[in-house]
Amino acid sequence: MVAQAAYNTDTLETPAGYKFESKPYPKGANLFRIHSWAPVYYNIDNIKNLTYESVYDLVSPGFILYSQNSLSTAYAMAGYSWQRGFHSGHFKFRYHGFFPVIEVSGDLNTRDRTEISLTTNNQGDNYQINDTIFGSPYLKVNMLAYVPLRFNSGGWSSGVVPRFSWRYTNDRFYSARNVKFGNYQFASFGVSLYRVRNMAHRDIFPKKGGGMSILYSVVPFSGENFGSLLYTSLYMYTPGMVTGHGIKLSAAFQQQFYNKKNYLMSNTIAFPSGYEDRYSKWAFSASAEYAMPLYTADIPLTPLLYIRRVQLKPFATFFRNGGQSGPENLWAVGSDLLFDLNLLGISYPLVLGIRGGVNGEKRTFAELLFKTPL
């Protein structure tokens, strides 16, 4: 038996005398290589995903093309979306070839651009007003630099992520001192810390752990018009009542420093589902989410659609906002229904779902959710 068995270290036949020629690899000419796509558009916050603060992303009708170079140091995304009646274009490029990681992104026509100015009421108080310039596309360009420092051991994932970002938009504000409108430029400095238990394939949330982020933002060269903003968030994970269930508790706080300034900055804190963003002097939010699997057996519906798991994730959010007209309480309750699936022959697994609920204004809301390993 042994004598009959043939053992070949290499089955590739090479012509005698053939010499392999080494060639230089031009990194710049090989930055882009389209390798996959998605049938919807979504905007990933890479730092929130990296630190386990965010699990799913909101999606819009559209599509995305992904690019990744052969060295896995350059990632790019180009996409189209349809949001609230606007046909929008998106681009993002991220380079990991050195520290810090550099990410450049742009969005065009997600809404009409706006102009803000001051008005005075009968009591002599100044109020910030926001005028929409209909038919004028909104443009946002963002540059982000961050250093993902990871410290993993003993079944735990830990890390510290310092960051700096600069953002330009063609929204405008009126400067009374300069007697003209100017465009926005935002600069932010911050750090995120996290430590979570490594996740098994069946886990929806990490079993244990948590993290926090601190972010300080300013509007450079704005003089008397803008102050600064401080934002912090905390989150923690803990096991649910049954094996495979998970709980996420989170809180966030935002404070604007606007003494002797004309305008409030745009928010960093996220308002509850179903609410439009509004100006805020200060804000606090607290939320709870409970994740559970509903069905874990495979469901082969068609050759193009294969469901591997169904999840349910009820949530509740309370939000206290210090608005221009005084404090207000906002809230939202609802649930996410999520499907782990393979779709349209796409090689990697996806999570697609819907979020629905009601908020404090007695309005119902529905949003699409998405997650991909890319």
List the helices and strands and how they pair.
Layout lengths: L33 E9 L3 H5 L6 E12 L5 E10 L2 E10 L5 E20 L5 E21 L2 E2 L5 E20 L4 E18 L11 E10 L9 E12 L6 E12 L24 E14 L3 E4 L2 E19 L2 E18 L6 E10 L4 E8 L3
Parallel strand pairs: 5-8
Antiparallel strand pairs: 1-2, 2-3, 2-18, 3-4, 4-5, 5-6, 6-8, 7-8, 8-9, 9-10, 10-11, 11-12, 12-13, 13-15, 14-15, 15-16, 16-17, 17-18
Protein name: Bacterial surface antigen (D15) domain-containing protein
Organism: bioreactor metagenome
Overview of the structural elements:
It is a single chain. The chain has 374 residues and is mostly beta strands. It has a single domain (32-371), classed as Porin (Beta Barrel), CATH 2.40.160. Helices cover 1% and strands 61% of the residues. The protein has one helix at residues 46-50; strands at residues 34-42, 57-68, 74-83, 86-95, 101-120, 126-146, 149-150, 156-175, 180-197, 209-218, 228-239, 246-257, 282-295, 299-302, 305-323, 326-343, 350-359, 364-371. The protein has an 18-stranded mixed β-sheet that branches. Strand 15 (305-323) and strand 16 (326-343) form a beta hairpin. The protein is globular, with a radius of gyration of 25 Å. The model has no long low-confidence stretch (mean pLDDT 88).
